[in-house]
Structure formats: C-alpha cells, structure tokens
Amino acid sequence: MNPRKRKAPDSLLPTHRPPKHPRRHLRADWCNLFMDACELMRDTAVKGMETLIQLIPGSSKQPSETFYPTRPQSPHAEVSSPPQLSSPTESHELPTRNDSSVPSNSTSFISSDTDGAPHSTSTGLTSVKSVPVPTAQNDPLDVGLAHSMHERQINHHVQTTLARLPIKPHIYQRQHETRVRETRKQDRQKMLQELHEIKRQQGFTSNIESLESLLGYEEKLRKRGITPSQSWSDLRATERLPLRVRRRSHGEERIDGHGLVSFEFLKRALEKAKSTLAAPPPPPLLSRHERLREEARKKDEAIDRFIRPPLPKVLPPEIEDEVDAVLHKRGVISKIAREQVCDKDISRLRPCQWLNDEIINFYGAMILSRSETFRQKPPLNGTVKTKILDVHYFSSFFWTKLLSEGYERARLSKWTKKFDIFEKDMILIPVNHDNMHWTGAAINFREKRIESYDSMNVPRKLVFLKLRQYLDSEHRNKKGKPFDFTDWVDYDPEDTPQQENGYDCGVFTCQFLESLSRGEQGFKFSQRDMAYLRRRMIWEIAHAKFLGWQ
C-alpha cells in the first residue's frame, strides 16, 4: 500500500464542515459600516462648526452673557435685596450688557463659593441670598475686570481652535522655495569666486575648494573660541573647568563635508576682504636707507635659496611605488619604541584628511630616536650639513593632562624620571586645541624662550602660560627651588608658514617639530609642499626613518 495515498474517511466518525459565508452578507456589512462612518463624520463636523460659531464673539444668537466675579461674604454680613426684576412673560426686552442691575445668568469662574448655590426655578439665575451681585454703583472695578477676563478667555479659545485647523500651503510655495535655494546657491558661488580673486591678489595660492575648506574650518574654530574674535579677551578670562582625560585619538572623525561654510560667514569674510583691499596703499619706499634694506633682504633670500633649496614637487619614481604599496597594506604598518601605526592610521596621510594622535606621536618618536642616535654616535665632520639637537619629545597627551589636571594631579614628574629636561637643548610638544586644531610648541633652553608655531597665525597666550607653570613646577620638584625666568621671552614668529585649507594643520605641526629638532631658524616649506610632504611622511613612517638621513 502506498503510504502517501490518502486514506478513506471512516463513515462512523462524525465530520465537521464549517458553514460557508456568502459574500453578499459581507458586502452588506461593509456598506452599513461605511454609512455609519459617514454619518459620524458629518455629525462631528456639524458639532465642531456650531462650537466654533459659539466661541466667536458677536456670532451667537443668544444674548451676550456677562461674568461677574463674586466676593466671599462673612456669615454675619447683611445682604441688600436687589431690585425687582420683571417676569419674562411680562416684558420681552432682553437685558443688555450695560444694564448693571441685572444679575448674571451664569456662575462666576473666579470664586468657588457659588458652586453649591441654589438656583431660581423661574429664571434659572443664581440665588441672590447666597451670591451677591456686584453692580456698577457699588464695585465698578470688579465688573470691568470680569469683562476683560471674559474677552481674553474668548480670544484664547478662538486662537486655539484656529491653530488646530490644518493650514493648506500655497500652490506656489514649493516652486518659490526651490527658486530661493537656487538663487542663494548662485549668490554664494559668486561671493566665493569674488573672495578667491581678492585672496589671490593678496598671495593666496590654492584653488577655490581649498579656500572654501579654510573658511569652513575658521568658522568651526570661531564657534569654539579658538581663533581671535571681538570677545577674545573675555574667552581667555573665563576659567576653564577641569576636563576628564580620556585616552582617545584626536581627530578620529573624518572630515567629509568640512568645507561647507555658512552664507553669513562667507558674506562677512567678503566684506572684510573688500575693506582691506579698499584701504590706501602704503607709501612708497623713497628713502635711501629703505632701498638699501630692500636690496639686502633680496640678497639674503637668494643666499637662503642657495643654501636651502626648495622642496621638490614629487618623490622619485621608486619611492612613489613604495608609497602606493604601503597604502594597500593591511594591519600594522610600522613600529618604533612604544608607538605603532596601522593601515587606518596611515590612510590619514592621504589628501584632505586630519592627522590623529598615532601619526603625530609616531613622527615624534622618530625625532626622539634620531636625536638619541646622534647624541650617542656623533657623525664625522662633513657628513651632515645640519646639526641634530639634543631634544626630547612629549606625546600629545602631555598637553591634555597639563591643561586639564595640572602638574601635581597628573603626576607629570614621573614623565621625566630617567632624564633631566634642563640639560636638553629643546623640548618639543604637540598641542591639540579642543580636538579641532594642531599646533607646535617648544621650550628652547639654548635661546631662553618658549616658542609657539601655529599655521593659523593665532596668538597662544594660554600655551605660554601653561608651559611657564610647568617649568617652574618641574624645577621645584627636581631642583628644590623656583625656576629663574630672567631673560626668557615668549616667541611667536609672524613669518610662520600658513595653511590655506582646513585639514593640513597636523602636517604643518609635524614639519615644525622636525625642523626645530635640526636647529633650523626658519621653515622652507609652505602650503604648496603639503602634497609632497604627505607622500614623504608615508614613506618615512613605513620605514621608521627620515628620508635622506642614515
């Protein structure tokens, strides 16, 4: 017997077959339900319109009601009998609002003493014995107050009801909004092009996209109080609350869309550029002394270009191939001392990317390793053109701890247990400002100055103050006496190379610190060299050594 074959039903077993529901009954039920819903909607609409008409003053057919506030009476107070009213059957004249002798036909909303008051069976009014009715003769202030409160209540109900009604947009509203957006976009592009032309006359070398990125970056910094503004002194004077230090990388977020600048900020920048351009030009150098100074400056620039030639535009072909291979690697790319970088970190050296702590600290570890190598094994005469200074590099978390916790609480004395910073030539410190901007700082013991290098050309009074406090605390801890700041100055050069976009501050900071470690008095790189320097840093980090240094 085939097991899949259906067995015959047993005739002795009861069978249950559900009754069939004809479709006509379902159709009739749905029709009845639809008619009931329509009647309910109609009744609701009629009731809403009646309520709205009653709330609008002057539209009701009923006589206007006047609300009189009641005043609580003492149990021993005598109540004067009101004037006799004519019966409704005897007089057909309705009481007017100005008639002060007629009592109100509704209870007062100010006093709660009339809630339990008996009502007259003939007129439906509140009993005169329990609720005294104020009149214009005995208390006109209460009557006026009641009228004003009643009118305010009616206006409030009308406004609330009208606000709940759906507002149908204008038929051309969408077209108008689209036209406004397109016009605003065109105006913004024209303003950006005009500002770019003015900036190019003033020495700006990058394209219009870099200018837009720079403006957006400046706007973000201004919102956080990092760049100078009209209230710069007030921002510096406010006391900062201590922050909780968390070991996280600065600049972890990617900066897609970083170049978007608001229309108002762009307009202010254009007005400022036009005012600067409209300023009268400086007087010409006519004196003999000024002409001699200009000739001497040009000679110095020529000698400097001969001694320190400009950076190349691209790397050699074999090094370019190695850089491309490094960018395609996965996992850990390179290690040095306690620092390491992986593929996600090295990808931040691609164009238009912020640098994070891993890249900054790895580059600083390379600077420190080169300084220690040259200090232990000094090169032979004539092999190296530039002297390598005896420097020490603090990681990016040094400034975060010093700013948020201070010297004692952050235990910064343990950072220098194995060496004495006062015997070094220079201390290099990368500074991150509110996780938005990188700058370089240095304590130069050779020149007796505290230095700050910012690619946005912003004065860093807070950096000078905190580093002076650190020097004094460290000297008291290690030497047992305060530090002598005689002849020490704060150094903030005006000719520091400036960035022309919103993402190259980390590259500028790395090159500031690397040039200072070689004893350079000036910097020979600019915004034009950033693409080349990014590619060169990829090769240097991958090989854990500087290009051109053995």
Word description of this protein:
- This protein has 550 residues and is an alpha/beta fold.
- It contains 14 helices and seven strands.
- It has a five-stranded mixed sheet with strand order 3-4-5-6-7, with helices on both faces.
- Strand 5 and strand 6 (449-453) form a beta hairpin.
- The longest helix has 33 residues, at 23-55.
- It is elongated, with a radius of gyration of 43 Å.
Give average pLDDT, whole number: 76
Q: Judging from the principal axes of the Cα atoms, what is the shape?
A: elongated
Biggest sheet character? 5 strands, mixed
Query: What's the helix-strand series?
Result: HHHHHHHHEEHHEHEEEHEHH
- As residue ranges, the low-confidence spans are 59-138, 228-258
- What is the tally of beta strands? 7
Structural Rg? 43 Å
Distance between the termini: 92 Å
- In spatial order, strands of the major sheet run 3-4-5-6-7
Portion of residues in beta strands equals: 5-15%
Q: How many distinct helices?
A: 14
Helix share, percent = 40-55%
Global structural class = alpha/beta
Annotate the secondary structure layout.
Blueprint (H helix, E strand, L loop, with lengths): L22 H33 L84 H25 L8 H29 L6 H16 L8 H6 L25 H15 L10 H20 L9 H11 L4 E5 L2 E4 H4 L10 H20 L14 E3 L2 H9 L21 E8 L3 E8 L4 E5 L7 H19 L9 E3 L13 H13 L12 H14 L7
Parallel strand pairs: 3-4, 6-7
Antiparallel strand pairs: 1-2, 4-5, 5-6
Helix pairs in contact: 3-6, 8-14, 10-13
Short description:
The chain contains 14 helices and 7 strands.
